[in-house]
Amino acid sequence: MNERSTATHSSRIGAWLAHHGFSLTASLGRMLRTPWASCLTIAVMALALALPLGLWLVLQNVATLSGQVDASHRVTLYLKPGTDVAQTQAVVHSLQQRADVAKVVTISPEQTLADMQKREDLAAAIDILGADAARAALPPVLQVTPRTGNISALITTAQALPETDRVQFDAQWRGRLQAWLAFALRTVQVLAVLLGLGALLVVGNTVRLDIQSRREEIGVLQLLGASDGFVRRPFLYLGAWYGLAAGGLALAILTAAQWALRQPLADLASRYGSRFALQGLDPLAIAAVLVGASLLGWLGAGLVTGHQLRQNRPRRA
């Protein structure tokens, strides 16, 4: 009995796996047999996926551009002109001893002068003024990177130092930028939900039409005792194929858009002395998009198929 039960159980698993394989290939073949309708469905889903993905990528690049993000936390101390190296190092040492300071970078007047001489619009003025006079007028600059937390105490201390001429920290600008980024991220999330529901409806309507065109075939299978899972399985794989193709097309659209914008953006950034370039999705994110789109198509097909099969179930006499 045990051997017979084991054999029966193995045969059931084999049949179940075989039907999954058949449903996978048959659903793909059915989608390819209607190329025009399939392309329309895939294109609509791809656009619904590409819009929130593109906006999310834009936000990621903006967050990177807006100071690379550490620069937005940086406090800049302009020491008084004429502060010598020993005094500058003393200020650096006192700041580094604080628990709320992560790093202090010193920019000497010589470094500032060298950077200014690289710019054509300033080099001529420096030549007229003289390098020595320009160097004497430039102050030592300290770029302080604070640790996370309240930095008001650090700013107060920096302003009270006798060597400090001016402290620059645009907290208001940074707060506004972070608020806009948070708002934009929430907007992208809302759009992703709405457009995801739209993609579900597109897949569901396509599968519903397919079920109606095969109503007689499905009715015969149900009369023969086929389970809902057996009947529904090919339609679930059909939805997954639609989702996978739509995810691939959405990634292709984003890649084409990134390629079209890359050079103009690089030219614009170069005029501001930046090497900023658009960053695309990494391989893990690409895989997540494809898997998520496939699951979205599977879910859309599953929601519609169960309802349609219950409505089309033949009544026994």
Spell out the key features of this protein.
single chain; 317 residues; alpha+beta; Alpha-Beta Plaits; four-stranded antiparallel β-sheet; 11 helices; 74% helix
Brief write-up:
This protein is of the alpha+beta class.
Structure description:
The chain has eleven helices and four strands, in the order H-H-E-H-E-H-H-H-E-H-E-H-H-H-H. It is of the alpha+beta class. The chain folds into two domains: 187 residues, no CATH class; 94 residues, Alpha-Beta Plaits (2-Layer Sandwich). It has a four-stranded antiparallel beta sheet with strand order 2-3-1-4. It is elongated. About 2% of the residues have low confidence.
Helix content: over 70%
The strand order across the widest sheet is 2-3-1-4
Give the low-pLDDT segments: 68-72
**Estimated radius of gyration:** 32 Å
Instruction: Count the DSSP helices.
Output: 11
Number of domains: 2
Q: Overall mean pLDDT score?
A: 76
**What is the terminal separation in angstroms?**
38 Å
From N to C, what is the helix and strand string?
Answer: HHEHEHHHEHEHHHH
Largest sheet: 4 strands, antiparallel
* Total count of strands: 4
What portion of the residues fall into strands of 2 or more residues? 5-15%
Protein name: Cell division protein FtsX
Subcellular location: Cell inner membrane
Family: Belongs to the ABC-4 integral membrane protein family. FtsX subfamily.
Domain FtsX extracellular: 75-163
